[in-house]
Amino acid sequence: MNKQALIGTITQHLASIGIQCVVGSGTDISVNSELLDAKWGSGQKKIEYQAAAYFDETAKTIFFWELTKETGSGFSFGVNRESSFQSGATLSRKVKSIGYGPDGKAYEYEFNLGAVSKTFKDAAKASSWKFKIVLKRDKALYPR
Question: How would you label 95-128 residue by residue, b for 16+ Cβ within 10 Å and e otherwise?
Answer without folding.
Answer: bebebebeeeeebeeebebbbbbbbbbebbeebe
